User: What shape does this take?
Amino acid sequence: MTIRSKLHRSKLRWELATPLAAMRRFCSATLLSATLAAAGSSVAAQTQQEQRWCEGADAATPTQRIDGCSSVIKADHDKGEQLAEAFNARGVAYRLKGEVDRAIQDYGQAIKLNGKLAAAYNNRGVAYDHKGDYDRAIQDYEQAIKLKPSAEPYFNRGNAYLGKAQYDHAIDDFNQAIRLKADFAPAYDNRCWARAVVGILKQALADCNQAMRVSPNNAATFNSRAFIFLKMTQFDAAVSDYNTALRIDPKLAFALYGRGLAKLKSEDQAGEADLAAAKSLQADIAQEYLRYGIRDAR
Assistant: This one.
């Protein structure tokens, strides 16, 4: 598998939440029983708080979300669709906590309980994506799309195709995401990058510009547009965009190396320092640029 730096595609993968109305129905029987109990008001309040944590409300931490969903799961007796939504919500919390394998287990349980829950397939795809298992991620995104076509699973599948360096497939998926959600800045950003890599430079530039109109302070977009200008031999414009990317995130090895190349192309020897700084952050940065068709000009 071709390895590419994840700096140049959005790190976002879009997880899909459990519908809140369904979660409220899910807890209604528990709330009613608690209200009738001797310590009804206290138990009901606790159960409602657990529900809200499970939903991610009240700025709940991942641990609180896990605890809330676990309580909701333990209290349920239907073993049906609403329980599936609670497992899906807990899976999101486990993924946020970095416990990806446990997230995958919960998504699998949600799918077992409700095979039509598109969110669980999408979210399991996100978990596989985080593990670098792009093939399994793509399979789950495909199932999510079949069940409920929306911009997010198309965007996620496009990211997985980027991870596999299958840029044409990635562009197709970003096209679909944008068709379904016209202001989807990360999709424009990632399509910009994919088009830049394969040399569709004018369209790539238009995508980056559109991404900046919607989300103007994203270092990755400036990084990608600078790369386009570098390929177009517009070195001053490349340096300017790399400068902006580095003001937002000074540790971007890709931007440092690209700025160094652009400076050297303009006979500015200060570029040597940028190349050295980039290599100190990422030892194989020159090889990465070479994979994208740009050699060290020295």
The longest helix spans residues 20-36. DSSP finds 16 helices and no strands in the chain. Residues 1-148 form a domain with the Serine Threonine Protein Phosphatase 5, Tetratricopeptide repeat fold (CATH 1.25.40.10).
